[in-house]
Write a structure and sequence with these properties.
Blueprint (H helix, E strand, L loop, with lengths): L8 E6 L2 E6 L9 H17 L4 E6 L22 H9 L5 E5 L2 E3 L1 H8 L2 E5 L3 E3 L13 H9 L1 H10 L3 E2 H7 L4 E3 L3 H14 L16 H14 L5 H10 L5 H16 L2 H15 L16 E4 L3 H12 L4 E4 L3 H20 L5 H9 L1 E4 L10 E4 L5 H14 L5 E4 L6 H5 L8 E6 L8 E5 L6 H13 L3 E5 L7 H18 L3 H11 L5 H8 L1 H11 L12 H8 L12 E4 L2 E4 L1 H14 L8 H21 L6 H11 L9 H8 L1 H12 L10 H9 L3 H5 L3
This protein binds (S)-3-Hydroxyhexanoyl-CoA (3H9).
Length: about 700
């Protein structure tokens, strides 16, 4: 069917009221046929004079959620939304909008260009464009300041936050708030407009009150907080222009919007938006998830407490088991502290926090799990300990209960094999702090049942996390890739860069923190333990990357918790640890390395190429279902800059052929570490991109 044949806007005349209903599931996005439908409806009603007021509302679960994001990056199709809204604003017959669910981006802009706005309780409005690398591009930067002032426009457009209906009413962005079905409210609003009880007026006729102080503060905030992003600054520029004639302001807004549309940032952020939804598309998606009404957590350390907190926050009753009473008390105290933190940050009310604490039980015996539907084991990473626990769980848990391990690298198949129910065993790999981090790797063993996988995904959703399906291997998706590319940072340091240079270059690229700072934060002892664990498996051909970090750890400098690691932490101040420079110099001397200089660009290129190499192998091995799954893991669990879309989206901006050339070039120095993955070589030969693979190519 052609776009113009789709009928997604219907008009119904009821007395003097024309009801115009947008019906474009799932979220009533402003696809071209919706824009044409609204344009035609308003024009026809004006020509035929078939009503005295037009009321625009939407069918389904929400009002218009914005422009159709899938159209961005494709050739434009008329009418452009700004033109449509200018026409609508000039309609001689007044237009009233009735909003329910969410009115976001272009959806809110439709409402702003109409002549009155009525919200239905539960509504949330927002301008989330900046979150996808854009700015409100259909009058939002001009009409919000006219109706609610510059500070409100800056707050909404720069944060992208969803404003609740009552607040929107107080801000002046809504004229009334009602309860009821959208069509009923639309009829009532139409009648009130006819009776003069609901005042209709043109937004473009209102003048914006200047506020230079608010604009300056926003500019400074954006320079600090969004230094890597283009659209926030452009958004402020457009809002600043709202004090002049609206036609001029709209021109400035349009230019800024079109410029942002053209940036790789916009493409990266939209890839992230759709990627977070695409990862739910798993082979097991039709399997019915099991019901989860109560969960058990083993281990009251940071991880177990975080997982328990997350489950409690989702309204699930939790039983926490620790071996000793003392450790149990510590675990419960950590959970309570986490929940108190939620109250302090305004995420939870005191009443909610109290209900959650009441939902938590503690025990020192695994028999306490006899009634739970899911157990998550979060004890330390030792296979024999895990096997013992799973053997006991198998005997105490009821039939149908799911037995999950939070292991970050151990073999789920080996753990499952000690139970009589390997189909019920799964990996649920949370990221620390588990009540805050969004990612949940759902690790599927050879025998895991489809409905157990589906339950893992349903749980992720309930915990407000993003579930990504991973296969079994050492480290699954994220930690396997991390283990590979983190060596590059060490090689760069051994060969001549400083830890600070590596950190600074990668932070400038967009990472929240460079790898040495991350190591200090996580605790350098963790990597040290892993290196010792893997020492026996290391190939003699492999260049050892851990020498500097080992020496640092031998001094007991485990990072932040010890007050020093790569950096020294001194009452909020942080500076490079001078002793590390000495360690590096000594290691270089012993290894006979002549130090050389690397530009920041070389640092980023090597680091990113190593990440892409292992990411490609993870896709090739089927550990990740698609390249986008790797992207989402890194965006939601590893602080990868969202505006770059993830490592494999970024790889597409370089191209497979160039990546192969780079790897072959680096291989001249270290042919063991730098090997071209078969998938990447094939892609270079065929001209295929990771995005083609995402699309099934
Ligand atoms: C804009 O408006 C620019 C203008 O200023 C200027 C223009 C000139 N387009 O999230 P869900 C899909 S920029 C196309 O799972 P929820 C989504 O992919 C836009 N598709 O549901 C998913 O598809 P699938 C500003 C969209 O209930 C399905 O709908 N607006 C769009 O958890 C369900 O989505 C935004 O940025 C879209 N705009 O949340 C709002 N939105 O089922 C973006 C969603 O195939 N949207 N889809 O995976 C949202 O924030 C959430 O979707 C929403 C619903 C809160 C609305």
């Amino acid at each position: 069917m052609q776009d113009q044949d789709i009928k997604s806007v219907k008009t119904e005349i009821v007395g003097d009221i024309a009801l115009v209903c947008v019906d474009n599931p799932p979220v009533n996005a402003l696809s071209v046929h919706v824009r044409r439908g609204i344009q035609d409806a308003v024009a026809e009603i004006n020509t035929a004079q078939s009503a005295k007021v037009i009321v625009l509302y939407a069918a389904g679960r929400t009002f218009i959620a914005g422009a159709d994001i899938t159209e961005f990056g494709k050739p434009p199709m008329a009418p452009a939304l700004p033109d449509l809204l200018n026409e609508m604003e000039q309609s001689a017959i007044p237009v009233v909008c009735v909003l329910h669910g969410t009115a976001l981006g272009g959806g809110l802009e439709v409402a702003l260009a109409s002549h009155a706005r009525v919200g239905i309780k539960g509504l949330r409005i927002g301008l989330p464009e900046v979150l996808i690398g854009l700015l409100p591009g259909a009058g939002g930067t001009q009409r919000v300041p006219r109706l609610a002032g510059i500070p409100v426009a800056l707050d909404m457009a720069l944060s992208g936050r969803q404003v609740p209906a009552q607040e929107a009413l107080e801000m002046g962005l809504l004229d009334a708030l009602e309860e009821g079905d959208p069509r009923d409210v639309a009829l009532k609003a139409g009648q009130e407009a006819l009776d003069g009880k609901l005042v209709t007026r043109r937004t473009d006729m209102i003048e914006t009150k200047p506020d230079d102080a608010a604009l300056d503060a926003a500019r400074q905030m954006a320079a600090r907080k969004f230094s890597n992003l283009v659209s926030p600054q452009r958004c402020i520029e457009a809002i600043a222009a709202s004090t002049g004639p609206i036609a001029d302001g709209l021109k400035i807004e349009r230019k800024a919007f079109m410029d942002c549309l053209d940036t790789p940032q916009r493409a990266g952020l939209i890839h992230a938006f759709f990627g977070e939804r695409a990862v739910a598309n798993i082979p097991e998606k039709k399997a019915p998830p099991r019901e989860i009404n109560a969960i058990g957590v083993i281990g009251g350390g940071t991880m177990g407490s975080g997982i328990a907190t997350s489950a409690l926050m989702a309204g699930l009753p939790v039983t926490l088991v620790e071996v000793k009473e003392e450790a149990l008390e510590r675990g419960i105290a950590t959970i309570t502290k986490n929940l108190d933190g939620g109250v302090k940050r305004g995420k939870l009310s005191q009443k909610q926090r109290d209900a959650m604490v009441a939902n938590l039980k503690g025990a020192t015996d695994l028999a306490a799990f006899s009634d739970v539907d899911l157990v998550i084991e979060a004890v330390f990473e030792q296979m024999d300990v895990k096997k013992e626990i799973f053997t006991t769980l198998d005997s105490v848990c009821k039939q149908g209960a799911i037995l999950a391990s939070n292991t970050s690298y151990l073999d789920i198949n080996e753990i499952a094999a000690v139970t009589s129910r390997p189909a019920d065993v799964i990996g649920l790999h949370f990221f620390s702090p588990a009540h805050i981090m969004k990612l949940l790797e759902i690790v599927v063993g050879d025998k895991t049942a489809p409905e157990v996988v589906a339950t893992g995904f349903a749980l992720a959703k309930r915990l407000k996390k993003i579930g990504v399906r991973a296969g079994v291997c050492d480290g699954f998706i994220g930690n396997r890739i991390l283990a590979h590319y983190s060596k590059t940072a060490s090689y760069l340091v051994l060969d001549g860069a400083t830890p600070q240079q590596v950190d600074d270059a990668l932070e400038a690229f967009g990472f929240a923190m460079g790898p040495h700072k991350v190591g200090d934060l996580a605790g350098l002892d963790i990597g040290w333990m892993t290196r010792k664990r893997k020492a026996a498996d290391r190939s003699p051909e492999e260049r050892y990357a851990g020498a500097v970090a080992d020496r640092i750890c031998e001094n007991g400098w485990f990072g932040r918790k010890a007050g020093r690691g790569y950096y020294i932490y001194d009452e909020g101040d942080m500076h490079p640890n001078p002793a590390v420079a000495e360690i590096i110099a000594k290691e270089r001397e012993e290894a006979g390395i002549t130090s050389r200089t690397f530009t920041d660009e070389e640092v980023v290129d090597r680091y990113m190429t190593a990440m892409i190499v292992e990411a490609a192998r993870v896709v090739e091995d089927g550990i990740a279902l698609r390249p986008v799954d790797v992207d989402v893991v890194f965006l939601s669990g590893y602080g990868f800059p969202r505006f770059r879309g993830g490592p494999l989206h970024y790889a597409d901006t370089i191209g497979a052929a160039e990546l192969v050339r780079r790897i072959e070039d680096y291989a001249k120095e270290d042919a063991y570490y730098w090997q071209v993955p078969t998938l990447l070589r094939d892609m270079a030969a065929s001209g295929k991109s990771f995005d083609d693979i995402n699309k099934g190519g």
